[in-house]
Amino acid sequence: MELSTLNVMEWVGFDNYTALWEDERFWNALLNTITIGILSTVPQLLMALGLAHLLNYRLRGSTFFRVAALTPYATSVGAAALVFTMLFERDFGMINWMLGLVGIDNIDFENNKWAAQIAISTIVIWRWTGYNALLYLAAMQAIPRDRYEAAAIDGASRWQQFLKVTIPGIRATIVFTIVLSTIGATQLFGEPLIFGQGPNGITGGADNQYQTLGLLLYEEGWKNYQMGRAATVAWAMFLLLIVVFVVQRVVKRVLARRA
Amino acid sequence: MTTDSIPVRTPDARPGTAPKKTGKDTAPRGRNRALFRHPGAGRQHHAGPVAYILLGIAALFSLFPLYWTMVAASTDNTRVTQTPPPFLPGPHLLDNLGKAWQDAALGKAMLNSLIVAGVIALSTVLFATLAGFAFAKLRFKGRNVLLMLVIGTMLVPPQLGVVPLFMMMTELGWGQKLPAVIFPTLVSAVGVFFMRQYLTEALPDELIEAGRVDGAHSLRIFWSIVLPIARPPMAVLFMITFVHAWNDFFWPFIVLDMTNPTVPVALTQLSAGYVRDQSLIMAGALLGTLPLLAMFVVFGRQIVGGIMQGAVKG
């Protein structure tokens, strides 16, 4: 549909889709969404796994550690992105200051493509690691104790127990968190928008170096007033999600067959 | 995604049915905590010093950005933009909070967010409990199909609906108005599923039968039997829905504008360069987060328990 103004609709067939296919900005946004998605999801879930393992020990002050881990989840994306924007500031940001202490020159986290994507991923990781850790922790606590005892009798070390008892025991939850964070990653919007500071926010940096599909959707729909184009981006996001899950299924099946 | 991949813990996991535990129980104590108990003893190893150190680092990483927000909000602009960055609070906290409150029009945003999150949380709890009860305990034609449909909506990304939804809201004359944010999220599939899982296990069929014998109709049973039993998960659902509604960004950012924003939308104004003063930006970020942080200080344990008990998200 051609929808530059809301009340004028015109049937344009698949024109918007072919335009999208030929649009460099779309491929750029798609790639950015994928790279930021990987940069944020993989470390996030691995760290959550480690954190959950630690929280699963018998602890003094376990409530404190759990609530502390979950606090970033209570921080709105706006506030979190503002704080990290400042921490990642080029001239006076704390991260560059600390890098300076170990002799690394100031990094331009805003304009350097990979630095910007890492910074944005850091915001995502910060906000969601604790949440995922609690999901893992809940699943870990449901693993029957005798499985560990049996493994210990078989001479399994702590590490082997973690690999052979804990991980299989929480597999369903791992799949669940992968699904959740993949959905979250395809929709990423607030973090890059606010990290981009104002006018550059929607375009994802001066060279679109961190424009995600979410930002592109917004730019098409509410800056360029091309609702039809925005809708095609939305469909592309949905398609991306489906492709990711199909790939995941296939990989799982191949791995299972090999095992 | 199949339903069995969703780790909703059912409330039958009381100590009696759980696998044997060692003397010192790590499960929470106290009157409200039965809901948050978990089956299985898990690992019972005591944490060593290394574990405490690692956990300390994790807690530091989680809390430091918030602490530093406070530090930056309490200094002045010149100090924030110097290196090394400040690590201790300065004297200007209240000053800056006051200024940020005005510059970002946070008063209105706070009120809006309170209304939006409050109404959404209340209605989600109400409708999710009603629907959860129906799906859990009432027998009717097409129940399973309907339940699958409800769960299926979780798979559709909200972005897919944004364009038609926006047109609908404009058509209704709700553009830039709160109902546009509230109405599309009055109930969530996750909430329905969460309540259904709980009630399936926690609500004995005999109680409903007894109510029926006494001549009570479904609504009456809901009011007198279901509600009292469902109170603990309803509280959890309320808090988690409140947090999500308060922090929701994408849709409010699209449909609202700066004259009538929610808190996260108002905060984008701080990054957009209208406010040049860095410590004021941090003061605004702090203000926007304070209500939820306060909630976490008071109910943190319950929220943690709720998330561990049933993966409620969205």
Automatic annotation (TrEMBL), chain B:
InterPro entries, per database record: MetI-like (IPR000515), MetI-like_sf (IPR035906)
Entry keyword Cell wall biogenesis/degradation: no
Region described as Disordered: 1-42
Keyword ATP-binding tagged: no
Gene Ontology CC: plasma membrane
Similarity annotation: Belongs to the binding-protein-dependent transport system permease family.
Name listed for the protein in its UniProt record: Carbohydrate ABC transporter permease
